[in-house]
Amino acid sequence: MAARLLCREGLYEDAVNRAYYAMHLSASALLARKGILVKTHAGLISAIGLYYIRSGELAVEHGRALNRIEILREEVDYTIFNRISMEDVSIVISQADAFIQQVERIIATEKT
Q: By the 8 A CB rule, do 19 and 92 touch?
């Protein structure tokens, strides 16, 4: 994930952006498998909650992480943001990895 490289280089705000968009793309792929296309970040988060969190296929903490990281991404992208720490970015990357791994497991089981 590009977020790890950016974090290593001290580009923490950019790392948050890339971690979120990695989650966004994997969530979009998951929804597309059900024929669901969304146009907004809020729509994506809502659809993941409706179709995957409610069913138990994705854990509640994955939905919360997607929501929190999207909010943080908006802050670092669009506001004057106090510097984010490497520790905070490490948590974001870890949560993004866990989310993406679970999405990959869901897709793999759908194929069988």
A: yes
